[in-house]
Write a structure and sequence with these properties.
By secondary structure, the protein is an alpha/beta fold. Helix content is 22%, strand content 20%. The chain has a five-stranded mixed beta sheet.
């Protein structure tokens, strides 16, 4: 699971916030770069699932703005996102690794983000670094990607991944929390074609910072096939 830090002077803008227990990775990076949590100026969440909201609630409680697409605002402000997605509940044996990681990283202690602030499709976000939000519905109602024009980077969240975090298949892959929406996820990748020359920074799997990585991944993307074991 990846989350990203963009810097502007000493200030830091985060893209996603992992699970609650992943705060330790942020603290390690802040210390390594000579920063402190007070240097985090904003958090932008690609969508309102538990493995992206993570420690955002802690910063929200301190007055740090946390932004999420308006269609995911309700789940961001509650704790309903702690429930495993349909896809994982159907195959709990194969998905045991992610379930164990979620519990080990304190998903059930994860706070909501009551002060989450909404944004809309196409909005240039009011954060210290240039980020444009692009809605790509399917994975969740308010699922989006974030484009950093200065560096031609696309933070794709779970819109387009290079590894299936639940079952381990290598990507590029797309899927929804509910498999009934998988085809929508795949079809909506067409919304990203104007940005094909961008690098690809997903929330799950290895980033690819080479020019055009996004376009190559769009062309090769597939819905991973989940094969049953004995979890019928």
């Amino acid at each position: 699971m990846n989350f990203y830090a963009l810097t502007s002077g000493r200030g830091v803008t985060l893209v996603d916030a992992g699970f609650f227990g992943h705060r330790r990775y942020l603290d390690e990076w802040l210390a390594w770069t000579g920063r402190t949590p007070r240097d985090v100026e904003a958090i932008v969440v690609t969508h309102g699932h538990a493995d992206h909201l993570g420690f955002a609630g802690e910063f929200d409680s301190r007055g740090v703005p946390v932004y999420v697409h308006e269609n995911d605002l309700d789940i961001t402000r509650t704790t309903k996102v702690r429930r495993p997605p349909v896809r994982l509940r159907r195959h709990p044996v194969r998905g045991f690794g992610m379930l164990a990681e979620a519990m080990g990283d304190s998903v059930f202690a994860q706070p909501p983000v009551p002060g989450a602030r909404p944004f809309v499709d196409g909005e240039d976000l009011p954060v210290p670094v240039p980020l444009k939000a692009l809605a790509v519905p399917g994975h969740s109602p308010g699922n989006c990607v974030l484009y950093h024009s200065v560096s031609n980077l696309m933070f794709t969240g779970d819109t387009l991944m290079t590894r299936d975090p639940m079952f381990g298949d290598e990507g590029p892959v797309v899927f929804s929390e509910d498999p009934a929406n998988d085809a929508t996820c795949l079809a909506n990748l067409a919304l990203l074609r104007p940005y094909e020359t961008a690098a690809l920074l997903p929330a799950h799997g290895e980033p690819d910072t080479s020019p055009g990585a996004l376009g190559e991944a769009i062309a090769a993307a597939r819905i991973p096939v989940v094969r049953r074991t004995h979890d019928n």
